[in-house]
Amino acid sequence: MPGFEVPKVLTAIDTPDETRPYRYETVYDVLNVDMVNLDALLQAWSSPKAKITLLLYRRLDFAAHEGKEVPAAGGIIVANSLTPQDTPEILEDYHAWYRQEHIHKLMKIPGWRTGSRYQLLDQRGEMAEYAGPFMAVHQYDEDNALGGTEWTQSIVSEWTKKIDQRMAKRPHRRVFKIDRVVSY
């Protein structure tokens, strides 16, 4: 599709429940979000056999280890949908925490490859899962230290506690395996 980068096809590897019904997702990087018409895409892609939700995000931040490529098939994606309380002071502190502390701790986790943060612009479709106004997406090698010491250190700090206490809603976390990267 014009304006779309190579899509990734993902399979959820977290435990399904009523808040996480989607087991498969396809992710497209879009070159220009202003060119996307979600209503037209929803009509073109809808099927009576599948639920569909279309989310359009604008990238706020990107971080990567120098010289490391994004994992292809087999890599892991962790996506966190976040909803800080909507006040200028709290949002400013949230963005500062992520840029100054959190991303640097995540980068120390063995197997971490890239991290991006996004702001939700629009959504259409079933909306069976919660999509907060901000989403962080981190890509890891299949062999990684998620759940290990470095990961634990990335979520434990006084600043992180303060950020957690100022969330309007609990984070919505998903973990996926990259099944394939589709090439045209």
Description:
- The protein has 184 residues and is α+β, with helices and mostly antiparallel strands.
- The protein has a single domain, classed as Alpha-Beta Plaits (2-Layer Sandwich).
- A hairpin with an 8-residue loop joins strand 5 and strand 6.
- The relative contact order is 0.26.
- The model has no long low-confidence stretch (mean pLDDT 89).
- This is EthD domain-containing protein.
- It comes from Rhinocladiella mackenziei CBS 650.93.
Keywords:
single chain, 184 residues, globular, Alpha-Beta Plaits, 4 helices, alpha+beta, 7 strands
* Uncertain stretches of 5 or more adjacent residues: none
Secondary structure tally: strands:
7
Q: What is the annotated CATH architecture?
A: 2-Layer Sandwich
Kindly estimate the percentage of residues that lie in beta strands according to DSSP. Answer: 35-45%
Mean pLDDT: 89
CATH domain class: Alpha Beta
Largest beta-sheet details: 7 strands, antiparallel
Instruction: Give the neighbour order of strands across the main sheet.
Output: 2-1-7-4-6-5-3
CATH topology: Alpha-Beta Plaits
| Whole-number tally of structural domains | 1
Give the helices and strands as they follow along the chain: EEHEEHEEHHE
Radius of gyration: 17 Å
What structural category do the secondary elements indicate? alpha+beta
Distance between the ends: 9 Å
Q: What count of helical segments does DSSP give? A: 4
Molecular shape:
globular
Helix content: 10-25%
